[in-house]
Amino acid sequence: MCESSGFVALAWGFGRFAGQFRAAVPATGAFTRLRGALARQKPGGDSAAGCGAHRARLASGVATCLPGQVSGSLPARHSGLRQAAGRDLMATDTKVEHLAGQPIGSPDQPPRFTVIMPTWGRGRHILPSIRSVLQQGMRDFELLVIGDACTDDTEAAVQSIDDPRLRWLNLPRRAGVQSGPNNAGIAAARGRYIAYLGHDDIWEPTHLEALAEVFAQDNAPDFGISGIILHWPNGLPGGHVTGIFKDDGVKHTHFFPPSCFAHRREVIDRIGPWRMPGELRTPVDEDLLRRAAAADLRFASTGRITVHKFTATHRYLSYVRQESDEQTAMLAAMSAPGHAERVTGQVARAKRDGTFMRVMQSDPTKQKTGQIAQMNARRRGLSVPPVQPLGRGAVLRQRRQDCALDWWTRPILGIRLQGRNPWPRLLLPFSAVGPVRLVLRVVHPEREALGPLQLACNGVPGTARPGRIRPGLWGWTTLYTARIDLAAEAHTIVEFRLDAAQQVKREYGRFHLGFGIGQIRLSPLGD
Q1: 2-40+385-524 in CATH: which number?
Q2: What CA–CA distance (Å, rounded) separates 6 from 475?
Q3: 217-235, pLDDT tens digit by residue?
């Protein structure tokens, strides 16, 4: 027991045992392995703990789609798009599905803005984002919701809204990136300006009005950029703020998420359409902005915050289990007293924290072609192992995996450490009918943190109970046990809802170590 406590003292550098046992612990064995494993980590190599401007920029792309063909009877415009999508782009024998009525205006009086919302797999959770568009004070727009070969209930959700400004178009073939739906939307657009909104982002009611004012200026820009807050998940304070600038030169170094910009429709004829990720070393949205900057197109900012982004790649497994709680809460907050003051406070905090105008372009020389798209797919849960029947049981060990803000990418000595997200998620690629026993090894530097562990299995709340708590290499360790129900035919997500004590981290050299998980055992329970 004394030697184990000495490991605690030496590994964490705190507690009253430090002086007593420091000399007694040899420089070899398990502690040396831990020290060596930590030494090989980069302080920012933890995808959660680092999470600097570069990671915020990588995560900012709208998580949507790209076709090889476009379904719809589309206007004969944009030669660049026709070349990109091929002959089928202009086919007239395919069907475009319209919602209630025809869009506002006529061929002689088109709307000022066309808003393009690419989507895939969002279902009813797309509704808050659509509502934020339809609630715009500036009503001279059409909204095109472009499905990337959607087969779920997204179409039914969109059709539940009776508004003549809203149109639905579903592409016949999916490619998994926003470029295809965006190109299809541009080809179908009737507006003078093209604006974009991610299917999980929210606009303030003044967004289009602010962009219209920018485009109405003397020496009007080609791109209008509005201020945007990139919110961390699960109420984490802070977040990046970008899109507020005066110097047009930022277009060469900064990245702006599509949800915060609009451009003249003819821009696409000058710089070409949205491109496929398989031919790029940068994200598709950054590629568009880079080409615009290289063509010396003019950028101008609205100077105010009108966009709230809930980045899918900051929300691990967000496409395995879609949710819209954050978006619904933001819609409510925007109409509540004090909202403007809260936004002002968030901007002030970003300036204090060094996260104001720090979302930078990536370095394409450090990326392989298509690498970023693959990374983002893993974070969203678009690239997961197939579901297998649980059978008699299964054992899961921690392996290297990019888990966004939830966990460190690399396990250390079999332990995966919590990142920034206070409610980290775990994917269980097994199915079962009937209850299942979950046994999970947990470590923490504080003994008091190893009390009951609240969790949610596929959204159903539950509690894991600790067994005997023992001192160990990481401080303290125990086995937690919980009774859960796996999905019958789909992946299961377990979300650990850490309390304040369990979120505590202790400094160890360059690192802050806290809650960690090790081996996981699943076994069916009898009736």
Answers
A1: 2.60.120.260
A2: 10
A3: 999 999 999 999 999 999 8
